[in-house]
Amino acid sequence: MQLKSMKEFYSEAEAAKELGISIARLHVILDEHLFSDGTARPDELTFRQSDLVLLAFWNKCTPYPKVVRMPRRN
What we know:
Blueprint: E1 10-11, H1 12-19, H2 23-33, E2 46-47, H3 49-60
Antiparallel strand pairs: 1-2
């Protein structure tokens, strides 16, 4: 993944822009992979470059069709 800018921290809007996705899509990725245990997503998040690499991977990965995903806990 080639980042357009090299910053120490990225806001949600900056992270979404770097990844080429919407903030809504970023929230879906976060909710599916990080906040899936019932923990509420914080109102404001910041990300490092290493976080963006992982988010880009999660954005591109497709669910394996033979794996049953657990439902989101609310």
